[in-house]
Amino acid sequence: MRAAILRNTGDHDLEVRDDITLRPTGPGEVKVRITHSGVCHSDLSAMNGTIPQPPPAVLGHEGAGIVEEIGAGVTSVVPGDHVIIAWSPPCGKCKSCVDHKQPNLCFNIMMVMGGQFRQGDEIIGSMAGTGTFAEYTLVPEPAVVKIDNDIPLEVASLIGCGVMTGAGAAINTAKVSPGSSVIVYGAGGVGISAIQGARIAGAAEIVAVDMNINKLEEAKAFGATHSCTPDEVDSLKNSITGGMGFDYALECIGKPVTMRAAYDQTRRGGTTCIVGVGRMDEFVQFSAFELFFNEKILVGSYYGGTDVRSDFHMLLRLYRSGKLDLDRMITRRIKIDEINDAMRAMERGEVVRQVIEF
Ligand code: PAD
Ligand code: ZN
Ligand code: ZN
Disulfide engineering: 32 pairs with which of 65, 167, 176, 256, CB 3.0-4.6 Å? Predict the structure, then answer.
């Protein structure tokens, strides 16, 4: 089958091959025919080493498709079911899942995912254990969430990462409250989803910040009430918040400079939510005084604080009722052969989401 592989960390291009196979479906596993995969910035970050991903690996982690085959003991899906792939699925039994009620942080399933692809005898890994830049993948049962067959699978694929992450960061992690002011750094797939999450949560003002001016109008179509480039933020802060700062700032880029800016634009006592993924060897500085003095809540958001078993359906209900716009988030539909062009377009900040159609 066809798949896009990262051969070495730092490679500029993925290798699109047509001789990749899957190992046989084992007990508790589900083989999925991937119909659509979104292209998330984290895939690019796996290529350049921002996100550690041992090569060789089939990239892609934002996918949906149709169950092809189930292993012994699988009960939640049957062949023909439509599913969204979850890259951090809950085991449902551990401390994270049960005691802490943070199933997004469960490692038990994630630890055993991956290693499903082969090129000849060579084992090929997969991004976050999922590898959705391939015609088929094989994952443990908790990593598939069954959805209704009438949901377009291209839309469903986006929920697998970017939409769940951004909307979940606003709704679950930051817990944006009605009538509040929100600033979102980055208007890519994750940032646009955070803007939509803030709108759904009832924010009064939502400021989108992006250095790419094409994104500024686009962000307004998804619910931003204002938009600006980074150097124009201070004047909007003054006019919207009287200089106090925003109730919530969500960073959806992954750079130290914008993480620091998000903290600075948060009002005293407000919430700074870091969604973007930066490098392990990059740092954000805070003075030892300001953390106490400002009493800001500084919180990371991993997969939008989601419980995929319920939140995917929550987002799909919002989509069906017209409150979450997913159709217009798809800037471009591509074939797997165009994946490297898609990465370049994302690097240039030209797109909200590109979806690979298999
Ligand atoms: P994207 O590339 O689609 O969007 C990023 C946006 O940021 C683009 O519109 C850029 O123009 C803009 N931008 C870049 N640099 C700057 C800057 N210095 N100032 C202003 N704007 C800038 O990415 P995405 O939306 O797919 O992903 C965004 C981040 O979220 C990225 O770091 C990704 O790895 C991360 C992510 N986190 C999780 C999680 O679980 N926390 C999940 C998925 C993605
Ligand atoms: Zn992602
Ligand atoms: Zn668990």
Answer: 65
Q: Is 317 left (phi over 0), alpha (psi -120 to 50) or beta?
A: alpha
Give the relative orientation of helices 256-265 and 233-241 as an angle to the nearest 10 degrees. 20
Q: How many CB atoms lie within 10 A of CB 277?
A: 18
Distance CA 351, CA 357 (A): 16
Is the distance from the beta carbon of residue 53 to the nearest atom of ligand 1 less than 6 Å? no
The stretches in the chain having pLDDT less than 50 are none
Composition of the chain by helix, strand, coil, percent to 5:
35, 25, 40
Residue with tokens 């400079």: 257
Q: Which atom of ligand 1 is nearest to the CA of 302?
A: 40
User: How many CB atoms are closer than 10 A to CB 71?
Assistant: 16
Token pair, residue 167, equals 């909307």
Which residue of 45, 252, 265 sits with most ligand 1 atoms within 8 Å of its CB, as the best mutation to test the pocket?
252
How far apart, in whole angstroms, are the C-alpha atoms of residue 22 and residue 13?
23
Angle at the Cα of 346 from the Cα atoms of 89 and 306, rounded to 5 degrees: 20
Compute the CA torsion angle 207, 212, 214, 219 (nearest 10 deg).
-20
Helix residue ranges, H only, 178-213: 189-200
- Burial of 283 per CB tally in 10 Å (0-12, 13-18, 19+): exposed
Q: What are phi and psi of 43, to 5 degrees?
A: -65, -45
Ligand 1 proximity of 246 Cβ (cutoff 6 Å): no
How far is 42 from 40, CA to CA, in rounded Å? 5
- Residue 270's pLDDT is 98
Length of the chain: 358
132, 190, 250, 299: residue to mutate for ligand 1 pocket, most atoms within 8 A of CB: 190
pTM check: above 0.90: yes
How do residues 92-111 score in pLDDT, each as one tens digit?
999 999 999 999 999 999 98
Ligand nearest to the Cα of 344, by number: 1
